[in-house]
Amino acid sequence: MNNSGWLVAPGLLSIRKPKTAAMFLLLSVLASLFALPALKFDEDVYRGYSSGNIYSDNYETLIKEFGYEPSELIVLVTSDKRLTASDFLHIRDLTLELNLAEGITSVFSIASVRFPARDANYPSEPLIPLEITDSSLNQRLNAFESHSSDRRSVIAKDRKSTLIAIELDTSNGKSVLETSKELKKIVVEAKPPHLTFRFTGSHVLGPEIVSALKQDLIFFIAAGALVGFAIAWWTFGNIRLLVLAFLPTILATLVSLLAYTATGLPITVASNVIPVLVLVLALADSVHLTCHFRDNQECGTDLRLRVIRAVKEVGPACALTAATTAIAFATISSSSNTLLREFALTGAISVIVAYLVVITAFPLTAALIGKAETKSLKPQRHFISDQFCQNVLKNHKGVLAITLVLIAVIVPALFRLEPWYNLNDNLPVYSEAKAANTIIEEEFGGYFKIWSELTFAHPGSIENKENWDALSTLSDQVSHAAPESTVISLPMIAQWLGSNDTPPKPDIFERVPAPLAGQLVSTDGNRARVLAIVPEPMASPASIAVQRDMEKMESDNVRIIGLPVVIHQETLMIVRHLTYGLAVAMIIVILSLSWYYRWPRLAVILILPNTLPLGVAAISLHIIADGELTPTALLALTIAFGVAVDDSIHLINRFVTERNKGKNADEAIDVALIETGNAMVITSLLVCFGVTAILFSGFVMVRLFGFMLITAFVTALIADLLLLPVLLRIMQKPSGERLK
Amino acid sequence: MMGLCIKFFLHILFPLLLITSAHSSSLENLSDGKFRGSGFIRTEPDKPLEKFSCRLEKKPSKNVEQLEFSGKCATATLKGRVKFKIDVIEPKKRYRLEVRIFGDGRLEAHVYEGMDIGGKRVRFTSGIEFNGEKYASVINVDYSRNHIHKISEIVTSNASGKSFKMFELITKVE
Fold first, then answer.
1. What is the pLDDT of residues A280-325, one digit of tens each?
2. For the packed helices A315-332 and A338-369, what is the interaxial angle rounded to 10 degrees?
3. How far apart are the C-alpha atoms of A554 and B106, rounded to whole Å?
4. Using an 8 Å Cβ cutoff, are A365 and A18 in contact?
5. Distance between CA atoms of residues A200 and B3, nearest Å
6. Cα dihedral sign for A649, A655, A661, A662?
7. d(CA A206, CA A192)
8. Closest-CA distance of chain B to residue A113, Å
9. Residues A93-102 pLDDT 10s
C-alpha cells in the first residue's frame, strides 16, 4: 500500500475479500432498513434557541420565576365583512367555553376586555355586554377605540378579524399538544360557517412541520435519485455502467441514514437536506470511479485490474472530497447552537459513511455486473475538447481580468449583507399557522412577548414613590420604542382601573389577574416588568428597528428579556460563528490539500477558485433575499465550499499524476482538463440537478439553501475549468517540481 | 283482569313510586353526576350583568348528611374553581351551605343557612359585604326530580334596601 493507500483501504479490502465486504455491507443495509421506522422528526421550532448564552439564560430564569412556560395557542378569527354583534356574542360564548376547559391558564379575547374606569358612558363595563345589537356594538367599539391604545391587541383596524389567546398550562403534566388538539376541537365544533378560524402557537406548529419534513424528505430522495439515474443513463448509455454507478449510491444513501438513528438525533428543517446531498455526492464519487473504470484503456478487458486502478487512482480523490465535505460540516459544530451542532454531526457522519459504502460497494458491484465488452466501455460524452484547453491557457490574461472585476464587485457587496433570521421561514409555505402569523403581525402588531425588567432602587416595595416613578418612566419608554405594540404595565393598569394616586393604593394591585400580576412583578418584590407584545424581531425592517430600540434600553437596572431578544442575539451570534466556521473550513481544507500533495504553493492556487464561487452565491442574496444573510445561507455556503472544492481536488489530483509521469505543466493541464473535466462537468450536472429537488421544498429557507448550493456549484465548475488551470500554469514552473 | 291490574298498581307500584318520589324530593337525595350551567352574573351589585358558565360535578359521598359539588365557573374575564358543601342539619328541612371560590390566587368563602321552603326549593341566607357595604344575600336552589336545575342569588342592601339579582344559573345534566 502506498502513502494514499489507507484512504482507499475499504475498497482494496473489498477487492481482496469480497465475501467479507459483502457480508459487512449487507448487515449495514439491513440495520438501516430496520432503523428507518425509528427516524425522528423535530417539531419544536424554538429548540434552537437554548444555547446557554446570557439572553437565553435570562429568559429561562424568568420562565422559572413564573413557574410555567408561557405557551399560547392563538386563534385568529376572520370574516369577509366586518364582524357583527352576533359574531362577538359567539366569540364571547367560545371564550367562556374555553375558560372552562382543562389544561389552560387563561383565555383572552375581545370579550375579556373592559372599559377603563374613567370612561364616561361605560366605566369598567365589559366591551361585549350580556346583550348587544350591531348599532350598540359600534358605539361601544368607537368609545373603546377613542381612548384605547390597546385596540390592536384584540381587534383589527378594519374590524374584520380578532384574536383569542389561550395560555396553556404547562405545569399540570398534561401534554400541551393534547390540550391544543382538544381546544381546537372545541373551537372548530362551535364555528359559524361565515367565520374562518386559524390556529397558531408553538404547539400547533409541530405537527405541521413534521408532516412537511416527511413529505420533503421522501420527495428529495426520490427526485434526487430519479434525476441522478437519468443523468447517469444519459452519461453512460449502458445498463451495466449505470448499475455500477447507481447501486453503490443507493446503498450509501440508505446506510448514511444510520447517522440519525445511531446518534438519536431528530431530522430538522435544516438537516432534512443532508440525505439528498449525500445521495448526489455519493453518485458523483460513483460516476468518477465509473468514468475511470470505463475510460481506462490500458487494462483492456481485465475487469479486476480496471477496478483496482479506479479505486487506487480515483479513490483517494473521493476520500479527500468526502473529507473536505465532512470538514465543512464539522466546522459548523463550532457554533453554540444545538440545531447547528446536530446538523454538523449528522452531516459529517453521513458523508464519511457514504464514502465508505461507495468505495466498498463499487468493487462488489463491478464483480456483480460481470465481464463487459470493451466496445461498450467506450467514452460516450465529451464536454472538454483540446481546443477548449488551448483557449483557456491562451486567454489567461482575460480570465485574470474577469476575476479581478468579480472581486471588485463581490467584496463591497458582501459587507452590505445583513444578518437575518425569520422564524416564519421555518414553517411550510402552505402552513395555516404561517398565514395566521403574517396576519397577526400586520393587523395586531405581533404575538411575541418581551419584558423590560426594572430592578428597584429601594428593594421590596413597589409602593415606594421613587420605584413607582421609575417604573412609570420605563413604561413610557417602552410605549415610545414600540408605538404599534400593546404595552402592559402596572402604572398603565392602575390608570385603566381609575387610580390617580402615585403610587396607587394596594387594593388596585389585588384586582390584577394573578397570572398577569406574576409577569409584571417579581416574587421577591424587588423588580417590576413592562410587558410588550411585539412582532417577530426580523419580520421586517420596521420590526428590527423596534427590537433594536427596545434592546437599547438595557442599562444597569433595566434588562430586556424574551424570546425576541434570544432570537435576535442568537441570530447575530450564529451568523458570526458560521462565518468563522466557514473561514476555518477554508483554511483547514486548503492547508490539508497543500500538505497532502506536499506542495505549499497549492494553498495559494486553491484560494481564488474556491472562494469566488462562494462570493458570487453570497452576493446573489441581494437579488433573491433582500440582502438578508441568514444562518441557512451560511450553512449552504459552508457545505457548498466542502462540495465545490471536490472538482478542484479531482483536477489537481490528475494534474499531479500527469506531472509525476513526466509531463510539463501545459501538457499536464491539458490531460487533466480533458480526462477529469468531463467527469467534473457530469458530476456538477449531477449535483446541481440532484439538489434541484430542494428548490421545490415546502420551506422557504430550504429553497434558499438549494439555490445557494446550485449557484455555488455552477460558479465553482466555471472557476475550476477556467481559473484553476490558469493559476496552475502561472504558479507551476515549466521545468516542474517533483510532486507527491 | 282489570281488578287485578288495579290491585297490582295500588299495592305494589304506587308505594314504590311514593318511595322513589319521597326519596328524590329532598335536596339530600340528589343524584351524583356532572352538569353544566349557564346564565348571568354581576361582579358587584351596581355593575352590569355578564354571561357566566359553570361545569360542576356532584361526587358520591359516604356521609349521607353531606353533599359536595365542585367544578369551574367563568365569565369572559374571570374564572375560578368553586366548591359547594351542603350539610344536612335537619333532613328535608334545614341545611348549611359553604361556598368556596378560588380564583386568581385568591380564596373567598361564605357560609349560608338554608331552609326547604317547599316547591322543591331550598333558600339559603347570609350577610355579605361588597366594598365595605353590607347586604343580605339570598340564594335559591331549585331542584326537580333528582337534579338541581337552577341556582340564583339576590342581594339587598342593608342601608338602601335596594335589591340586585347577582347571578342566575340554569343547569342541565351532561
1. 999 989 988 998 888 776 666 678 888 998 899 889 989 988 998 9
2. 160
3. 35
4. no
5. 72
6. negative
7. 27
8. 7
9. 999 988 888 8
Answer whether A100 sits within 8 Å of B75, measured CB to CB: no
- Encode burial over A334-368: b for 16+ CB neighbours within 10 A, e otherwise: ebebbbbbbbbbbbbbbbbbbbbbbbbbbbbbbee
pLDDT of residue A63: 86
Q: How many CB pairs under 8 A join A and B?
A: 59
State the SS3 of A694-726.
HHHCCEHHHHHHHHHHHHHHHHHHHHHHHHHHH
Best mutation target among B42, B72, B79 (most A Cβ atoms within 10 Å) is B79
- Arithmetic mean of pLDDT over chain A: 86
Contact A383, A681 (CB under 8 A): yes
pTM: 0.80
Q: Report the C-alpha gap between A314 and A304 in whole angstroms.
A: 15
Chain A, nearest residue to B40 by Cα? A130
Instruction: Say if residue A28 is exposed, middle or buried (CB neighbours under 10 Å; 0-12, 13-18, 19+).
Output: buried
Q: How far are the Cα atoms of A527, A563, B102, B126 from residue A56, in angstroms, in the given order? A: 19, 8, 34, 53
Asked if A513 is an interface residue toward chain B (Cβ–Cβ < 8 A), one would say yes
CA distance A432 to A443: 16
All three cell numbers of B11: 299495592
C-alpha cell at A317: 480523490
Rounded distance, CA B114 to CA B100, Å?
Answer: 16
Helix or strand or coil: residue A421?
A: coil
From A608, A616, A644, A558, select the one nearest A328 (Cα to Cα).
A644
d(CA A511, CA B51): 20
Nearest to A96 among B47, B76, B105 (CB): B76
Number of H helices, E strands in chain A: 28, 10
Q: Check CB contact of A93 with chain B, cutoff 8 Å.
A: yes
Q: Would strands A628-629 and B33-41 be described as parallel, antiparallel, or unpaired?
A: unpaired
Q: Are B134 and B159 in contact (CB under 8 A)?
A: yes
In this predicted structure, the answer to whether residue A472 has a pLDDT above a threshold of 90 is yes
Retrieve residue A323's grid coordinates. Answer: 473529507
- The SS3 call for residue A659 is helix
> What DSSP letter does each residue of chain B carry, written as one string?
-HHHHHHHIIIIIHHHHHHHHHHHSSGGGPPPEEEEEEEEE-SSTTSPPEEEEEEEEE---S-TTEEEEEEEEE-SS-EEEEEEEEEEEETTTEEEEEEEEEETTEEEEEEEEEEE-SSSEEEEEEEEEETTEEEEEEEEEEEETTEEEEEEEEEEETTT--EEEEEEEEEEE-
Q: What is the mean pLDDT of residues A107-123?
A: 87
